Amino acid sequence: MLIADVGRHSPAAQAVTAQLIRQLQDSIKAGIERTQAAGEADPALDADRTAAAVITAIQGGVSVLISTGSADHLEAGLDFCLDRLLGQSPRTIDERPFPGNTDFLTESRNTNGGFSV
Length: 117
Known about the structure:
Elements: H1 2-6, H2 11-37, H3 47-68, H4 72-85, H5 103-107
Helix pairs in contact: 2-3, 3-4
């Protein structure tokens, strides 16, 4: 939510936000490329676009989580990205690592009301 809010206030804030997102995307991209090089991820995927999709899944999922209190959208977005990255078929709700259990998110809540990732 902070990312969406900060960028609206000034061009300078938007530039800083864009730089932070780019750094995060570059880090995720590097991890995807290492996973591809190890033969564990689909080598045909564009690592930069996949990293952008992961960030979008997180950002959108967190927005829904904050609005509804449910981590279902966040989990679904991340599951979808990871399944695509690893060349797997999309999971059903019963195949998720934490089906219906979001206690791990609650336990990760930091002192500012956000979640640690």
